[in-house]
Amino acid sequence: MSDIDKINSCVQSYYDGCCESDSNKIKDVFDENAMISGYLPDGLHEMSLNDFADFVGAQQPSPRSKGDEESLEIISSDIHGSTAIVMVREKYLGMTFVDTLSFLKKDDTWKIYTKLFHVES
């Protein structure tokens, strides 16, 4: 499997974890030192991986089980050696997010290192 395929698979697993409210899937695709930061309508939010995983897991019933609209688009991918930047647009919790995901490759495994997010609508 190529690096781009591995990264795309990681992005899909991340989105599935959000839609399924599966905190373990979230922890699997992020580096243990990851930070998640961005703006929601009420202002800036900054979270550790555990905070973000807990937030995702608390969305009960899960968006997928409620039948929420799902949409995931990879806008761009840029890989340089063992680092990558991927921009995605996704629907989650009734909002459309644009995420900038930075990746690190460690021991031949790609993990999300930072997630910067912006709400489009």
3D structure, described in words:
- The chain is of the alpha+beta class.
- Helix 2 packs antiparallel against helix 3 (49-57).
- Helix content is 31%, strand content 49%.
- The radius of gyration is 14 Å and the shape is globular.
- The protein has a single domain (3-119), classed as Nuclear Transport Factor 2, Chain: A (Roll), CATH 3.10.450.
- It has a six-stranded mixed beta sheet.
- The longest helix has 18 residues, at 3-20.
- The protein contains four helices and six strands.
Low-confidence stretches: none
Main sheet characteristics:
6 strands, mixed
> What is the CATH topology classification name?
Nuclear Transport Factor 2, Chain: A
Output the CATH class name.
Answer: Alpha Beta
Number of discrete helical segments: 4
Largest sheet: spatial strand order: 2-1-6-5-4-3
- Look at the structure and give the mean pLDDT: 97
Strand content: over 45%
Label the overall shape. Answer: globular
Instruction: Indicate the radius of gyration in whole angstroms.
Output: 14 Å
